[in-house]
Structures
1.
Amino acid sequence: MMRTLHRVYVALVYIFLIAPIAVVVLASLTTTNFVTFPPRGLTLAWYAAIFAHPEFVNSLLLSLVVGAGTALVAGTFGTLAAVAIAREQVIGAGLWLALLSSPLVIPSVVLGIALLQWFTIIALPAGVVPLVIGHTVLALPYVVRLVCAGLAGIDPALERAAAGLGATPFQRLRRVTLPLIAPSVIAGALFAFITSFDDLTVALFVVSTNVMTLPVRIYNYMQFNYDPLITSVSTVMIVLSIVLVVVVERVIGVGRLFGKAAAE
């Protein structure tokens, strides 16, 4: 009886999570000029219409570039920070971990306002750089925790053995530690990309009329229009995000890594 109730509960949770996505995807196939569900007829015309709006294509390319930059920067600095924290090579490792994890508990609006004020003070114009900086702040907690989880599964004796054989700290990191935690580093970088690609709140504060990521472009478009073009663009974002998550899970096993991170 309890097993049946558990299965029903899990099924209801999945339905609750998947239903909004399914509505958006199906609404993108409607033949009407307005968003409706269930769709009236089926067509892919609204996907073809994306290419008739170069601003959406440009914003998509910008989001991909910013996401790649965020994955590179957050992956690099997050990995180095995680190694220093996990191996207690810095004073107050627990405090540093809490500080790097703080974006998870600080509202995104507060982070966006803080970044806007800081960029204004240093006179940094809107562009790829401030977007990468802002999204790196958001993504660092995921990278640090995933890499820390990967380091928790490595026997420190391997690194000590390398040190005993004369390897320098950099050689130990490059030849021993990084190869062993490569799956965690890749997973962290991909999650940083997804965090950047889907972000709206922080990006709203650091974009301009000429530099606008895809989520911000969708948000601004919806202020004045509500046609199925929005649902087709949103479906493209959903598909890209799901594909990345599935690839990471299949190749690396994100569930296992997050389980280790949560256990720490």
2.
Amino acid sequence: MRLPPGAPIVEKLITDQLGISRTPVRDAIRLLAEEGLVVIRPQSGTNVARIDRRELEEGRLIRRALEVEGIRLAVHRIDAAAIERLRDILSLQERAAQQKRHTEFMDYDDKLHQTISELSGHPRLWRVINSSKAQLDRIRHLATLQPRQEDRTIAQHRAIIEALARKSESRSVKALEHHLDDAYRRLDVLLKQHAEMFE
């Protein structure tokens, strides 16, 4: 979201800025196009893609389904060391929020969810989730800038960790579902506020 949907992408500017040749830049742009993040139009140029509502919803469904199943499995495998690791990630996320480092906040958000998914005993789970949420991540960056949004996320993450620490499958699932559903409701508000960014 540093470049808004519709913004032009000029290869020469990127190569000059990064001090690299055009080949890796073209390869990167091609990969971004495959993920639906940029649109390449021959003889017209390359632009940042608008956020695809269908892909956004599909990413949400995949993420919710796989994370919920992952936490069900993680509850039975979790130990004190894993809980401490999750609490450490949460502390780092809180510090990032306090210092208004939004990108870092998002990185710790993903790290916490990834750690829980990996505790399921299925390491590919997070790779599948991560590969399906590109459109979702774009609007998540907008969401972190909303007032009190980060505080809300941290409180929900704390509830998830505490439920895991109690080894309660039902509480863990409920806390995670609440967190994911609440986040998506807030994304829906952004979708209405920034309709020009979507297709």
3.
Amino acid sequence: MRRNGPFALAFSALFAVFMVAPLVVVIGVSLTPKGFLEFPPSGLSLRWFKAILNNPEFITSAWISLKLGAASASLATALAIPAALAIGRGRFAGREALQALFLSPLTVPTVVLGIAFLRLLSLLDMNGTFIGLMLCHVIVITPFVLRLVLASVVGLDRSVERAAISLGASHWITFRRVTLPAIIPGVIGGWVLAFITSFDELTVTIFIVNPTTTTLPVRLFNHITQTTDPLVASVSTVAIIFTVALMLIVDRVYGLDRLLIGEGAR
């Protein structure tokens, strides 16, 4: 059966259009000179990008989202690496249960998670704090990192590690100089995916923020409940450009193909 037949090509083209079309609409709306949502725009203007500078609360929320995403993704990655090594290589009772525990946030509705986090942080007197927000995001995004790192661990050839140990290297040196470089595609890919997920997270976050820790998605949501102007589209366009730029930098430095397929194909 041919996998590159006309039907497959047509399906791939329609799928690509389906994925890209909303982004094109958002970018188009952000360039309108009018004071209302318009697509296609009757003209091209940077009016609503300049309006971002007149709304410093959006800039403040963007910095909060950036710091939150970086901190949460880093902590989630630090937790996912040893967990993936234990799950991927260990043969102990409760291994499947441990894996299910780490992946369980994917199976729980985000609204339920938000309510649960709200109650927990209230009991700990951490509701609305940056640390509490970060810990909640770590729980939400850790499964994404774990799955990619676990895929790299499962496909890892352990003969090089055994050779390093036989030559006198300690377990820590073996991990730092042999294991970690071998699984780095999954680590970097997991970190990037976790960062983007944290940066874009709304449903859980809206339950646990306060005015001093309002993230960009929550700020956008609050804005569109009060007015419908193209400012939201311009802020979203900046976020799209930032995400694309991040992916291009990763591609230039490391290569997206290695992140997507890892080294499991070796």
